[in-house]
């Protein structure tokens, strides 16, 4: 006997159907072993933000308010381009140039925590550049994860 959610084996044990999530073998975000998050305060000067981003080889950096709440992110390449074109001054704050996170009832906030299954993370990243990994109450940004992190994890696991 089988259902849409699981299939039975001759010994009566139920297993989930084979699908996209199988490549992660039940792994969660914590299994990615991500480095600690690097984020900028909203009042950081763009010159310093660009310098820090290139030191760490980051293309996107989360921006936090004074209570460490995520506000948005900066696209480092776009910001550097504006700076080099004279469209931004080195002393201006990153908050002026960040892409704000949209929080509304039509676009609810998706909480990604260390215990989020990787198949759920993969679905989230289908139309996003990165995800912020937070604690369950969303008070602290613990890490930043990208599609490349997922791909690297699958390659390491074989």
UniProtKB/TrEMBL annotation:
Which is an annotated Pfam family here?
CBS
- What sequence ranges are listed for the domain CBS? 33-89
Gene3D superfamilies reported for this sequence: CBS-domain
Q: Which domain of life is it from?
A: Eukaryota
* InterPro entries linked to this entry: CBS_dom (IPR000644), CBS_dom_sf (IPR046342)
Q: Which UniProt keywords apply?
A: CBS domain
Instruction: Tell me what this protein is called.
Output: Cystathionine beta-synthase
* Native source species: Phanerochaete sordida
């Amino acid at each position: 006997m089988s259902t849409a959610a699981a299939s039975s084996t001759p010994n009566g044990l139920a297993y989930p159907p084979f699908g996209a999530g199988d490549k992660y073998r039940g792994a969660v975000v914590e299994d990615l072993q991500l480095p600690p998050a690097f984020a900028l305060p909203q009042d950081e000067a763009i010159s310093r933000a660009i310098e820090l981003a290139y030191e760490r080889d980051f293309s996107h950096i989360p921006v936090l308010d004074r209570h460490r709440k995520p506000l948005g992110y900066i696209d480092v390449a776009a910001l550097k381009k504006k700076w080099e074109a004279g469209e931004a001054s080195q002393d201006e704050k990153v908050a002026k140039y960040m892409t704000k996170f949209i929080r509304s009832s039509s676009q609810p906030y998706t909480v990604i925590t260390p215990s989020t299954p990787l198949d759920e993370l993969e679905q989230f990243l289908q139309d996003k550049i990165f995800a912020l990994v937070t604690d369950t109450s969303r008070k602290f940004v613990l890490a930043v994860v990208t599609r490349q992190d997922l791909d690297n994890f699958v390659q390491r696991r074989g």
